[in-house]
Amino acid sequence: MTEPRAGLTTDPSEPRVAGLLAEFSGPDALRAAASGVRDGGYRRWDAHSPFPIHGMERAMGIRPTILPWLVLGAGIGGAAAALLLQWWTNAVDYPYWISGKPLFSLPANIPVMFELIVLFSAFAAIGGVLVLNLLPQYWHPAFSAKRFARVTSDGFFLSIDASDPRFEPALTRRLLESLGATAVEVCYAPATGRRVPRAVTWTLLIVAALAVLPPLWIARVRQSPSGTPRVHIIQDMDFQPRYPSQGVGTYFDDRRASRPPVPNTVAEGGLQTDSHYFRGQVDGRWAATLPILTDMEQMQRGRERFNIYCATCHGLGGQGDGMTHVRAVKRGETGWVQPRSLHVANVLKQPVGQLFNTITHGLNTMPGHAAQIPVDDRWAIVLYVRALQRSQNAGIDDVPAEQRPAFFQGGTKP
């Protein structure tokens, strides 16, 4: 059986030495003492000051913490958990087809992955700080020294734990005094042991009991539904003061909640005085010219809008063979009328104002698109339709002379 080290006792009736606490005159003296204790080979010790001391971590020889690696691992685990959960629920356990989209696609899962990365990383950061700092720690050997109460105001201390392999009460005291300690005090372990304060125990029990009550109440309500309305803890806008559509009000004399438009008024920007621009008419006749600039930018805009709104029925080339027509023919839709080709004679002869009016108000089975397409875009579509018609019905006279093939330069074919 090994003999106890000098200054320590195994007699349970005597107080057990828990460590030594040394006080220093200031932050510089404490930092220098930390370097001396580090060089002395001590491993279980700590420095205490009322404020952070620059360079103390280097003086103590503290290594970089592994907390960033813990957070990184937790973040990767959160991303993997989110990805696996979404893949299992959407592609394996309950596959749900939506418009032929893939059952699993990485971009759709990124928001949940991001949230779980943040959640798992936060848990790892908080838990890692507690574990690496041995928290919660309700007792420390230095607490037994009365002078240690000044550590939050103007005291600078260094404590060495008795569990350190190099701890010897006499030798360790001489080392601390040689490093400039103004006072060295022996710290004893409490006779009652390290117990969690009773107030903390009761507080945790009460919080745990209260936390169980809401799930139990929810389970009870789900098992025995009630005829009374549900409880709205957060009111938000569930019970805002409002009138239903076309309801009866009490504020106005006519008792109408919805107010009618004011007679002879026009909404701001709604006064359409330019008949050429808004209706495609000049002096009561269909306009023959476009009220917008006819440049390549407008042409590209018209092509884009045409492909979105018109090509589904009329086709990309304007032949009336769009995907809607092809699908209707395959399905054998009764009463289906093929969309009109934009290259037939009666459409080619129509003025641009009439084409604009057709896009705006529709014609026969074609609905109007005024609600979907702004006025500028409707004129841009008309410009593109004219270019589309020109491309399919152009003659040699429409080609500049310098761009004609060689055999047309003389005006006749060879």
Could you characterize the architecture of this molecule?
The protein has 414 residues and is α+β, with helices and mostly antiparallel strands. It folds into two domains: 177 residues, no CATH class; 114 residues, Cytochrome Bc1 Complex, Chain D, domain 2 (Orthogonal Bundle). Helix content is 42%, strand content 8%. It has 13 helices and eight strands. It has a four-stranded antiparallel β-sheet. Strands 5-6 form a two-stranded antiparallel ribbon. Strand 7 and strand 8 form a beta hairpin. Helix 12 packs across helix 13. The longest helix is centred in the N-terminal third of the chain and has 27 residues. The N and C termini lie far apart (123 Å). The mean pLDDT is 86.
Number of domains: 2
> Numbering strands along the chain, what is their spatial order in the largest sheet?
2-3-1-4
Helical segment count: 13
The major sheet is characterized as: 4 strands, antiparallel
Terminal CA distance reads 123 Å
Amount of beta strand: 5-15%
- The SSE string, one letter per element, is EHEHHHEHEHHEEHHHHHEEH
Kindly name the structural category: alpha+beta
- Helicity, as a percent range: 40-55%
Q: Extract low-pLDDT stretches.
A: none
User: How would you describe the shape?
Assistant: elongated
What's the rounded overall pLDDT mean?
86
